[in-house]
Amino acid sequence: MKTFIIAEKENVGLNIIKALSTNFKTEKGYFESDNFIVGYAQGHILTNYSVNDYEGKKVAWKDINVPFIPKDFLLKPLNSNKLDVIEKILKRKDVNCIVNAGDSEREGQLIVDNILEYFSNLTKNKTIYRLWIPELTKKGIKEAYENKKLNSEYLALNLEAKARSYVDWVLGINLSVLLTVKSGQLFQIGRLIYPIIFKIYEREKEIENFKKEKYYQLETDISDSKGNSITLSYKKKFKKEDLNSPQVKNVLSLKSIKLEKIDENICIKKPPKLFNLSDLQEVLSKKFSFSFEYSLKVIQKLYENGYLTYPRTDSNYLTLNEKEKIEEFLSTLEEKEKYYNNTSIYNDKEVESHSAIIPTIKNYSDLIDDDLKVYQVVRNRLLSNLYKEKTSISERTFYFSNNLTKTLKSVIVKGFLIFEEIEEQTTIFNASINDVFNTNFSFKEKETTPPLRITEITLSKYLTNPFNKDSQDIELSINELKEVQLGTQATRTAIIKKLYDSKYSYLELKGKKFYTTEKARELVELVEKLKINIGAERTAILLNKNLIEVYNGTLTINELLNIVKNEILDLKEKIQKINIPKKITNQNQSSSVCTCPKCNENSIKENSKSFYCSKCDFVIWKNYKYFDNIIKIDEKRIKKLSKDKKIKVKIKEKEYTFNLVFNGKYSNLIKEK
């Protein structure tokens, strides 16, 4: 008899079969050895029903009865080929055991659980286990398999993931319908979309309303006996009309000052904490200008190839039972005597499901380019925390006459700084008490600066900690707000990218800075006119507290959906009370270019850059790049693709046939051979 293991991705499945079997065959869609069959889903291969699916017919948005909440949430195939392979294996009589090997987090749990539930008639009499893999090394996989638990022990994680998925679907459908029908303009909106848009819009308004103001500060340079100079300045900012005041004139008349006191403090600087995903992406953005989307791809690749531990984690700590893993890592180092197993990196209370990201002991000598850069950053962060030599910093504060002070820092012992590119500028200034220094005070004209635009780094920090200490939300205490995050480490990067994809077109990413589009600004203005609350605090109340309760078993999914239903009813009532002019007619809104070639809904829309489906994830660029050539996709060609799934294209005076092929969420044009 054989055990059927279902992984989330092909390369993860390959790692699993290599770790558990010495000999195996590669079949179409799975791997097989004497004892194991390892299949894979390639991400989401099932998707939620649409409103049209539930109704059994095409329904205009204006005819959807809000709140629309299905009695039972149903799934339909997104990738029939993968499902067919899995179904065929589940029907085999030599398969008596199934293992869920989805990625070790909520989404991974749900992806494989959904498949098992979809084929419940084939799985109900089989024992199902869960393979929870922190690192994809042979040793890590073998240990995970030996310690696998029944999948039923992860029911709480499944329920929380389902609840999150259902709430996202319900809020997305109902908010989009309410705002679109009210305004006559298509607004696809979800639980996290609006808080992100509003944060960027809010910052843009602050920049737009900012008025520069000139101010003046009194400054002078002084030098020690060896010519080392420093700048002294009064913190007070003077307006132009204050420049002739007696206080200013007194300072300008000073010809010298005396050093009256020196305080020196030697402090030990601790290394930065081990990486969670957001922290690592922020460092890679600063250090190498990697986008969050790109850095996640590299990080995920390093995990799947066994070089890093599981990356989609919120934690900056390891658990105590990982001490042996660190001992093993230490044993691989040269100059072992310089390192130790630092107990401060362990904290069980700070680890929910996954520990901080650290390197495995796999030999990394074959890594090159960006893979090596990312790996080295993670490795150096661990080494920083294991290095025996402590980083020692001297802080000297000089107190001069006339209430002038200056604090200078200098590095005494580098310690962990040899691994981290953290600037600790050393300023040399030699002086003794009662030394007198010549001064030449003058005005330095300066200007106030506007707030900085939101970048991927600042947006990441906001989503991780969206509420500051001044939050006035009456329904959440300050302590509760500290625990709230918007989105998860596993989903944030994809959600942000979605907002500047052509289907949504709410944001533009120029360099590292986010800009709202006209559509995003119209959405915020609409929400403000309607006087409804769909911002971050409301999202936090609905999701953070209640999803934890679902996980803990103190709230059922149906009870949570009832809370969401009441929220939507409240929003609906407020929206209906306010009259606003429609920008376009509902008839125009519902018009489509043609039928979607992927989901067969009459839902292909057009914008300046692409044709996209408003019902599924289909999108194709108007300037489709094929190697060094551009294939122009116009209305005639998209209709041809919709009807025949193929078009004829002339490249360099020769005509070729290109077939439309779907690979997960991507739509590709493949030239016929």
Characterize the structure shown.
- The chain has 673 residues and is an alpha+beta fold.
- It folds into five domains: 2-42 and 79-147, Rossmann fold (3-Layer(aba) Sandwich); 165-208 and 453-577, Topoisomerase I, domain 2 (Orthogonal Bundle), CATH 1.10.460; 214-268 and 395-411 and 422-447, Topoisomerase I, domain 3 (Distorted Sandwich), CATH 2.70.20.10; 277-386, Topoisomerase I, domain 4 (Orthogonal Bundle), CATH 1.10.290.10; 594-671, no CATH class.
- The protein is built from 21 helices and 26 strands.
- The protein has a seven-stranded mixed β-sheet with strand order 2-3-4-1-7-8-9, sandwiched between helices. Strands 14-13-12-15 form a four-stranded antiparallel β-sheet, with no helix packed on it. A three-stranded antiparallel β-sheet has the order 11-10-16, covered by helices on one side.
- It is globular and about 90 Å long.
- The model is unreliable at 469-479 and 584-590 (pLDDT under 50).
Number of strands: 26
Radius of gyration: 30 Å
Q: How much strand?
A: 15-25%
Amino- and carboxy-terminal Cα gap: 42 Å
In CATH terms, the superfamily of the largest domain is: Topoisomerase I, domain 2
Principal-axes geometry comes out as: globular
Counting copies of identical and different chains, the oligomeric state is single chain
- Biggest sheet: strand arrangement: 2-3-4-1-7-8-9
What is the second-level CATH architecture of the largest domain? Orthogonal Bundle
The largest β sheet comes out as: 7 strands, mixed
Total domain count? 5
Q: How many H/I helical runs? A: 21
Q: Indicate the low-confidence ranges by residue numbers.
A: 469-479, 584-590
